[in-house]
Amino acid sequence: MRKYPNPMNPSVVGVDVLERIVDSRGRLHSYRLLSTEWGLPSLVRAILGTSRTLTYIREHSVVDPVGKKMELCSTNITLTNWVSVSERLVYTPHPEDPGRTVLTQEAVITVKGISLGSYLESLMANTISSNAKKGWAAIEWIIENAERALS
After folding, report:
1. What is the rounded CA–CA span in Å between residue 52 and residue 84?
2. Number of folded domains that form the chain
3. Neighbours of 122 (CB within 10 A)
4. Which CATH number covers residue 125?
5. Residues of the chain with pLDDT under 70
6. Could you give the 3-state DSSP secondary structure of residue 13?
7. DSSP string, 32-87
8. For residue 128, what are the contacts with CB-CB under 8 A and spacing of at least 6?
9. Which GO terms describe its cellular component (predicted)?
C-alpha cells in the first residue's frame, strides 16, 4: 500500500485510492488510480501520433494475510486505442524458505493498428522487465523506511 511514491520509480506521480474494503475472508481489496509520467522516446510518440506522456493506470490489489499472498493487477486506461498493458504480480512466501518471497509476474501487451507495432511491444516488454527489478528495490526501500519510522 506504500509502494508509491518511491525513489526507484519516479514515473508514478500520483496515487488515488478509489475504494478499499475487507471482504468476508479477511482479505484487503484496494482499487487505486495511478497517474504516471511516461518518458516515452520521441520515436514512440511519433508512432502513436501523440505528445501526451501523462497516463493513467487502474490497479486492483488483494492482500490475503491468512494465505500470506498479495496479488496486484493493473491495466492502463489511457492510450488504449493504441496500446493495452495488463500486468499481474503475485507475491507469496518461498515454499522452502518462508523468510523469502517469490514474485510471479505476467504481462500481456497488445498494440493495435500501429506501424512498427512489434518494436513498440518489445520496448514495452523490456520496460516491464526493468520495472520488476525496480519494484523489488522499492519494496526493500519501503520496508527499511517503515522499520525506521517504527523505531
Report:
1. 16
2. 1
3. 13
4. 3.30.530
5. 1-2, 39-52, 114-117, 119-121, 123-125, 127-133, 135-136, 147-151
6. strand
7. EEEEEE----HHHHHHHT----EEEEEEEEEEETTTTEEEEEEEE-SSTTTEEEEE
8. 85, 87, 105, 107, 109
9. mitochondrial intermembrane space
Take residue 134 and report the three cell numbers written for it: 525496480
Residue 12: closest CA among 4, 22, 24, 2? 4
Cell of 71: 496479488
The structure's pTM equals 0.75
Distance CA 45, CA 26 (A): 44
The residue segments making up the domain with residue 34 are 12-150
**Own/partner long-range contacts of 48-55 (Cβ < 8 Å, ≥24 apart):** 48/79, 48/82, 48/83, 48/114, 50/79, 52/78, 52/79, 54/13, 54/78, 55/79
Phi and psi at residue 115, in whole multiples of 5°?
Answer: -65, 150
Note whether residue 116 is domain-resident.
yes
Q: Please choose, from the candidates 83, 68, 66, 73, the residue with its C-alpha nearest in 3D space to the C-alpha of residue 24.
A: 66
* 84 domain residue, yes or no: yes
Residue 114 lies in a domain: yes
**Residues 80-100 pLDDT 10s:** 887 788 999 999 999 999 889
- 2 domain residue, yes or no: no
